């Protein structure tokens, strides 16, 4: 049956895990129609390679929609993070 076509924002850790062939990360990629990463994640992933990073840059530009950070994006990310179960002790602060 599969999952509905939804979008997801991935952080640096899951992108690096997928690039390193971690099966759980690979499986997560298959669950989403579009995957977004921030320009910060793009930058952090590119810090790793010591040699030519052309293939990695091409891969990221092809497989992700890269979102620039402005105040609106930062506030949205903050609100999502603040209101997750992990941060449930801060839920009263979310608006």
How would you characterize the overall build of this protein?
The chain has 95 residues and is of the alpha/beta class. The protein has a domain at 6-68: Rossmann fold, CATH 3.40.50. 48% of the residues lie in helices and 15% in strands. The protein contains five helices and three strands. The protein has helices at residues 12-19, 23-29, 39-47, 54-63, 71-82; strands at residues 6-9, 32-38, 65-67. The protein has a three-stranded parallel beta sheet. It is globular, with a radius of gyration of 15 Å. The termini are far apart. The mean pLDDT is 80.
Given helix and strand content, the structural type is: alpha/beta
> How would you describe the shape?
globular
CATH superfamily of the domain at 6-68: 5'-nuclease
The main sheet comes to:
3 strands, parallel
Average pLDDT level: 80
Radius of gyration: 15 Å
Number of helices: 5
| Percent of sequence in beta strands | 5-15%
CATH class type of the domain at 6-68: Alpha Beta
Q: What is the strand tally?
A: 3
- How many angstroms separate the termini? 36 Å
Secondary-structure element string: EHHEHHEH
CATH architecture annotation name of the domain at 6-68: 3-Layer(aba) Sandwich
The side-by-side strand order for the widest beta sheet comes to 1-2-3
Could you name the CATH topology of the domain at 6-68?
Rossmann fold
Q: What are the segments in which pLDDT stays under 50 over at least 5 consecutive residues?
A: none
Q: What characteristics describe this protein?
A:
single chain; 95 residues; alpha/beta; Rossmann fold; 3-stranded parallel beta sheet; 5 helices
């Amino acid at each position: 049956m599969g999952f509905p076509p939804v979008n997801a924002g991935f952080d640096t850790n899951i992108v690096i895990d997928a690039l390193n062939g971690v099966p759980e990360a690979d499986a997560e990629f298959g669950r989403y129609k579009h995957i977004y990463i921030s320009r910060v994640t793009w930058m952090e992933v590119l810090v790793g390679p010591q040699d030519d990073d052309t293939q990695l840059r091409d891969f990221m530009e092809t497989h992700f929609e890269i979102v620039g950070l402005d105040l609106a994006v930062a506030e949205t990310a903050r609100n999502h993070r603040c209101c997750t179960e992990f941060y449930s002790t801060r839920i009263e602060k979310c608006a």
